[in-house]
Automatic annotation (TrEMBL):
GO terms for molecular function: DNA binding. The gene is hrcA. Pfam families: HrcA (PF01628). GO terms for biological process: negative regulation of DNA-templated transcription. Keywords: Repressor, Stress response, Transcription, Transcription regulation. Negative regulator of class I heat shock genes (grpE-dnaK-dnaJ and groELS operons). Prevents heat-shock induction of these operons. This is Heat-inducible transcription repressor HrcA. The keyword rRNA-binding does not apply. It comes from Falsihalocynthiibacter arcticus. It comes from the Bacteria. Belongs to the HrcA family. Residues 115-336 form the Heat-inducible transcription repressor HrcA C-terminal domain. The keyword Mitochondrion does not apply.
Length: 354
């Protein structure tokens, strides 16, 4: 089966132009594009019948669809994906858009939460979608770890960070733990954890346990492996997902099917479901990523698109993300540079305050 890039490469100039104009027409007004409309805008003069034949071929390829009998065509999810990957022309950030973003982040206040709230409001206002801003966790290097037994099935881990911050987390230790095995587990962790953040610790621990397995008895090893999974991976999260502009998704004519989809999306956002997964969407590298329709299982996004970009701290480590959710017919060419610029600007401010 041909990949989308191969399909695009094999298209002749006429098919490519018909496809591009159908998609651009749909993104501009949300309406199906008919053959007669295209006869007035095509580069070469061709008949409506010829354009209909090209549209049928594109439909067979799964790139266009017909929402109604005898109607024009709209792009399928696969068609939108191919357009975004191969034909989308991303413009420069408009001067007015840049001005509004700069104004939002222009104050010198050090309250990061207020600043990110304003970022979310600016993004939703500029894009007419719902904005998502994932704020960074408090992540200083670890200075010391201690375990305290609270009973047969409860234990406390005390985390002392290099910046003086202290956290206490209650968790369920593996069965049969003794004071000596807890001390051994703490000693092992302190030997490898100092100077590392919590998010860096998991990968290091798994590697160290594998290479130094003989140094830990069975109980201490279980304490490190199982305990770590509870108080690092499942411990309380410090990221905060800021959502602004949800009402934008209800503007215009919304049919019952779309309304149900949007309600489901709102429910997901209210529950802050899979908040860590939102950040993981951006972990494959810098830059903006676009998820169309059901490509993204994070939210109930069937019929919606997510444009998202990570932002980094001074050490070039991804610490948060900004994004926009809207209908699949987003103005991607305009929204991509807005999201990209905002993420870079937030990263610089985080680094300056860091």
């Amino acid at each position: 089966m041909n990949t989308q890039s191969e399909i695009l490469k094999d298209m002749n100039a006429r098919s490519r132009e018909v496809f591009r104009r159908v998609v651009e027409g749909y993104l501009n007004n949300g309406e199906p594009v008919g053959s007669r409309t295209l006869t007035r805008s095509m580069t070469e003069k061709v008949s409506a019948a010829t354009i209909r034949n090209v549209m049928q071929d594109l439909e067979i390829l799964g790139l266009l669809g017909s929402p109604h009998v005898s109607a024009g065509r709209i792009p399928t999810q696969s068609g939108l994906r191919m357009f975004v990957d191969g034909l989308l022309e991303v413009g420069d950030l408009a001067t007015e858009d840049q001005r509004r973003i700069d104004e939002t982040l222009g104050s010198n206040e050090r309250d990061m939460t207020s600043m990110l709230d304003r970022v979310g409001s600016a993004l939703s206002g500029l894009t007419h979608g719902a904005s998502l801003v994932l704020s960074p966790k408090h992540e200083a290097p670890i200075k010391h770890i201690e375990f305290v037994s609270l009973g047969p099935d409860r234990a406390l881990v005390v985390l002392v960070f290099a910046d003086g911050h202290v956290e206490n987390r209650v968790f369920t230790p593996p069965h049969g733990q003794t004071p000596s095995s807890m001390r051994e587990a703490a000693n092992f962790l302190n030997a490898v954890a100092e100077g590392k953040t919590l998010s860096e610790l998991s990968a290091v621990i798994l590697r160290e346990i594998s290479s130094r397995r003989q140094e830990l008895d069975v109980l201490a090893r279980a304490m490190v492996e199982d305990g770590l999974a509870q108080w690092v991976n499942k411990g309380e999260r410090h990221e905060r997902l800021i959502v602004r502009g949800r009402s934008n998704l209800l503007e215009g004519e919304v049919d019952e099917k779309d309304l149900e989809r949007i309600r489901s999306l709102f429910d997901d956002l209210e529950r802050k479901r899979d908040i860590a997964d939102f950040l993981e969407l951006t972990q494959e590298g810098e830059g903006v990523r676009i998820f169309i329709g059901s490509e993204n299982k994070l939210f109930s996004l069937s019929g919606s698109s997510l444009v998202v970009s990570p932002y980094m701290n001074a050490e070039r480590k991804i610490v948060g993300a900004v994004g926009v959710i809207g209908p699949t017919r987003l103005n991607y060419g305009r929204i991509v540079p807005i999201v990209d610029y905002t993420a870079q600007l937030v990263g610089r401010l985080i680094s300056d305050q860091g």
